[in-house]
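Task 17 of the worksheet. Students: predict the tertiary structure of the chain below and write it out as structure tokens. Keep your answer in the requested format; marks are given for formatting as well as content.
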Amino acid sequence: FKIISSDPKVKAILVNIFGGIMRCDVIAQGILDAATNLKMDIPLIVRLQGTNVNEAKALMALSNIKILPIDDLDDAASMAVKLSDIVSRAQELKVKVDFSLGI
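Model answer:
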């Protein structure tokens, strides 16, 4: 995440993982650690499928990180585009956008 989040042209990040061999809960913990360490302030959309996906979703839900978990890849991609557009427009208008999730 460090390289991609440092690019000012990146307005949202979509993570799409199918955890067949690697457990989704381990991947989710890595995502949470990276987002915490980098103090990311752009939308993070995560689509996980595979082994221990429910545990991964629980980890993300219980964290203080603003992650939008979406099960369907098409929906996740669409949301990433929409959120990226919102961030771009807000930056043009010099408006700060907070992506707090009401869940």
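Marker's comment: Residues 73-92 form the longest helix (20 residues). The two ends are 24 Å apart (CA to CA).
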